[in-house]
Structures are given as structure tokens and as C-alpha cells.
Amino acid sequence: MRHLPIVISGPSGVGKGTIVKELLKRDPSLVESVSMTTRAPRPGEISGKTYIYVSREEFEARIAADDFLEYDEHFSGLYGTPRSFVEEQLKERSVILEIDVVGGLNARKLLKDTLLIFIDPPSPEELIERLKKRGTESEQALRERLQRVKYEMHMREQYDYTVLNDDLGRAVDEVLAIIEKERNKEGN
Ligand code: 5GP
Predict the structure, then answer these.
(1) Among candidate residues 138, 121, 139, the one with its CA nearest the CA of residue 130
(2) DSSP codes, 38-73
(3) Which of 22, 84, 143, 188 is most buried, by CB atoms within 10 Å?
């Protein structure tokens, strides 16, 4: 079985986080990369688990030290994938990276056999509803996130698979089936 970097992307509010949580529960051989960010924690988020929260100064020092596999700035924060964790884990297992489309496409340039999966919202209206309900964003931040949805939806054409999140259980089944199929392909 191959050990793959598996990127899960999709617009804000599409339910990526919930899907990833379920994937890890249902397939304990998977592990998730915890990203580093300069954005402030949201209520309920756990430092070291949801993200590793650092100052912009520290993040920039880590960029200079080449500590990130990839990083990107969006929604007025820096987000990056710590390199050593992913590289170490890939020797033993497949690693999930819940990152944006720019990060996903950059990761593919650096890591062999990166699998890119995009999570599609059932409809734009539902996505807006979910983001509003989450209530974690200011009006301005909400507008920025909705603006970015268009860009992400366009970039998903470069992804290997698109999975519609119309029903959580069904979407998780579909992602697991894709992972299973790709892990069992012959490596080169
Ligand atoms: P949020 O602020 O909602 O947690 O995340 C905003 C966006 O940043 C999401 O699209 C999320 O997937 C993306 N993101 C999270 N971690 C990383 C990372 O390490 N690298 C990149 N490029 N994007 C990330």
C-alpha cells in the first residue's frame, strides 16, 4: 500500500473539517497535518490540534528557516504546513492536509503522488447559510470568504477528484473509497 499526501480543500464552510474528523475516526491509519497560522483562534478551537497559533514574527522566522512545505496568506492571516511532520509521517502512513487550493497545488509540486480532493458545497446558497450560522466571522471577513469561493471553485478543475458534500456519511464514504483506490495503485 502506498503512503500518500492527501489534500482536502474546499470553500470556507463546506464542512471540510467535519469530513476530515470522520475520516480519521473511520481509518485510524491516517494522520492529519496540523497547520501553523497567524490568525486568532476561534472559540472552541484547540491550540496544537486545530492549528498551531504563532505570531507573524515567528511565522516569518520559520519561512526564513524553510520550515514550511508550503504556506500562503489569505483572509489576513498566514497559514503553513510544517514540513518535518509531513515528511516523517509519510514514511509510515498517509497524511491528510486540510489546506486551500493554492497550498494543495504547491504541495503537489513538492510531494510525489499527492492526491488532491476538492469538497463541493451542495449549492452556493447553502454555503452562505452555513457560514452565517457558524457566526465566527465579521461582516467584512464573511465577504472576503465568499469572494474567495469563486476562485476556489475555479481552481478545483486542477484537482483529481471532486466530492459533493450533500450528506456527511455519503461524502465520507466516497472520500474513503477514493483513498483506498489510490493507495492500492501500483507506485512508480
Ligand atoms: P480557516 O481560517 O477557516 O481555518 O482557514 C482558511 C483557509 O486556510 C481554509 O481554506 C483552509 O483550508 C486553509 N488552510 C489551513 N491551513 C493551511 C495551510 O497550512 N496552508 C494553506 N495553504 N492553507 C491552509
Answers:
(1) 121
(2) SSPPPTT--BTTTBEE--HHHHHHHHHTT-EEEEEE
(3) 22
pLDDT below 50 — which residues of the chain? none
pLDDT in tens, 49-104: 999 999 999 999 999 999 999 999 987 799 999 999 999 999 999 999 999 999 99
Å from CA of 1 to ligand 1 middle: 28
pLDDT for 75 equals: 74
Identify the DSSP state of 137: S
- Tell me, using a 6 A CB cutoff, whether residue 12 lines ligand 1: yes
Q: What is the CATH number of the domain that holds 151?
A: 3.40.50.300
Distance between Cα 82 and ligand 1 center (Å): 13
pLDDT at 188: 57
93 is in which domain, residue-wise?
5-183
Q: Is 100 in the pocket of ligand 1 (CB under 6 A)?
A: yes
Whether residue 188 lies inside any domain: the answer is: no
